[in-house]
Amino acid sequence: MPSLAANKSPLKPLLDEVGPVDQVAIEERVAKFTTRSIKKASKIQGLKLAVSMVDLTTLEGKDTPGKVESLCQKAQCPDAELDTPQVAAVCVYPAMVKYARRFLGDSQVRIASVATGFPSGQFPLRTRIQEVKQAVRDGADEIDMVIQRGAYLAGELQAVRDEIAVVAEACGDARLKVILEVSELESYDNIRAASFLAMSVLRPGDFIKTSTGKTSVNATLANNQVMLEAIRDFYLDTGIPIAMKPAGGIKNSKQALHFLVAVKETLGDAWLTPERYRFGASSLLNDLLMQLRKQQQGVYQAPWKFSDASTGY
Questions:
Q1: Which domains, from first to last, does the chain contain?
Q2: Catalytic amino acids?
Q3: Would you say 123 and 151 are in contact if contact means Cβ atoms under 8 Å apart?
Q4: Which of 54, 150, 215, 261 could form a disulfide with 183 if both were Cys (CB 3.0 to 4.6 A apart)?
């Protein structure tokens, strides 16, 4: 029987509309993803696919144009000794977008920028919209916005929906990624409901995203699975394909492959592309490259061989 607290939740109408999450079933399912055996040619294919899905990220107060240049160089040529694809995008603060555009030129690597008062989302709406428009003018191809989690949890659903719609309009042709900040949403039910709320105003090919990477808990297989199943159900209802980006906490190749197994078994091969799935990460790329070198050369290389010691990339 639902608790009295659940019945009084300001989110109850939305939760009733999209349906609950079976927590036990979700956790049992994701546990099985970690048992899949991926070896040899399939493993190499999976590692390269993961490389192509990385949004290579630097979001630090000490970011400089020089650091962004190093990031862009790494994004375009992850490893000169390996036949690897470019990463999907570099992700930077709005002030760094113009430098990323200068360094990348007309490269196929996209420029993503966090905006709308990242990571709190607590700036006035007018300021957040100005930030989005300036990032797009400076050359951003994609905007990663944060929702106001307090407003969502208070049941101010129309206000949250309207803000997402206004930001999407401000993006113009740039793609929008809506960050739910799952660790602050308190339950799988709330994550599923927030996913549907965002998707209801997104355009085909826009993203929902787990996290800012600035909280103690970020992307996990379980919260990723809740969002993948929301995307599946939304697609079956509407025919609109929404993309997905787990971010924060995915640091090694084994984790990345588990996430790709989840995508394949939940959404199918159509989502196994950088157009529909991304990893928000800073250190993941180096581990992917180490594993690819291991597959090619039979031994692990020292981690420092994959990074510029002055930048971490």
A1: 8-306 (3.20.20.70)
A2: 144, 209, 245
A3: no
A4: 215
